[in-house]
């Protein structure tokens, strides 16, 4: 198996007085070796819960997970040395330099002191290694955090929201760093709720919504699959819109009726539209593919697209009534 990370049917419910919060609802994910893989989903969709479960920090209620072909959490003691992770932003001593910070961590983790210089070089902090952390930009602090996770030279690096709060320059540096790590043979998984970050940094992506996988694959494929299928159809007479929508739906298309046109998706070939409408004596004055912007693809997939006049909650976790806890591992 070349998958470095495999998750199948992961379940996690949080219990509180208000009920049971189903944070993960049969979540699946596969990450192949040598990829920079984006784990994308809106706030509250279950990303941190997945990563914390994977690292043995919380217990799932069901499903299975494997890292480097070994079932976890059972094999975590054996694979832990091959996994570097930052799931909560690490706090560094502001008055320490990056070099002192990493030396301390290397010493505590039984890592060769020489590795400190290697990781400083890798994350591009060598020139600032003897400056105090309090003089660093946010991007530099994030890279120091990555450096700390790289000390033990992991095969799999897991980063929760590493680009959070970074400006475009910081994101560019992070992208170069991730690319270099992947080229050195490392597999990188990074979570984000911002599509633009993932798109710039990652090869492949898993999109999560309400605790379930809603899309996965190469970034370009996922976007192409969901972005290029809509066609705007204008008719010579707007009076024909409703009847034409009905005819197209019979072909299996999804049709939205707008004030002066139709939006049609779900058809392999737009020529079917003109054919069926002409057959009904209706003539098309415009037929144009609509290039959906990438942010809307993500919002549509994750069901958080803003609805006019409504302030929808981004946190989309399902609340189920309180009931007996599901059987989980180690119970
Ligand atoms: N300890 C907890 N107790 C109860 N509910 C929790 C707990 N941790 C997370 N949740 C809930 O589980 C759901 C998933 O949260 P999670 O933090 O995994 O989402 P996320 O995708 O990482 O979000 P974000 O992008 O905001 O970090 C949310 O509804 C959250 O409120």
UniProtKB/TrEMBL annotation:
Question: Which intervals of the chain are annotated as region Disordered?
Answer: 309-331
UniProtKB keywords: ATP-binding, Nucleotide-binding, Transport
Q: What sequence ranges are listed for the domain ABC transporter? A: 5-235
Q: Which domain of life is it from?
A: Bacteria
Q: Could you tell me which PROSITE patterns the record lists for this protein?
A: ABC_TRANSPORTER_1, ABC_TRANSPORTER_2
Q: Which InterPro entries match?
A: AAA+_ATPase (IPR003593), ABC_transporter-like_ATP-bd (IPR003439), ABC_transporter-like_CS (IPR017871), P-loop_NTPase (IPR027417)
What are the recorded GO MF terms, alphabetically? Answer: ATP binding; ATP hydrolysis activity
Keyword field contains Nucleus: no
The reply to whether Protein biosynthesis figures as a keyword in the UniProt entry is no
- What family is this? Belongs to the ABC transporter superfamily.
Q: What is this protein called?
A: ABC transporter
Native organism taxonomy: Bacteria, Bacillati, Actinomycetota, Actinomycetes, Micromonosporales
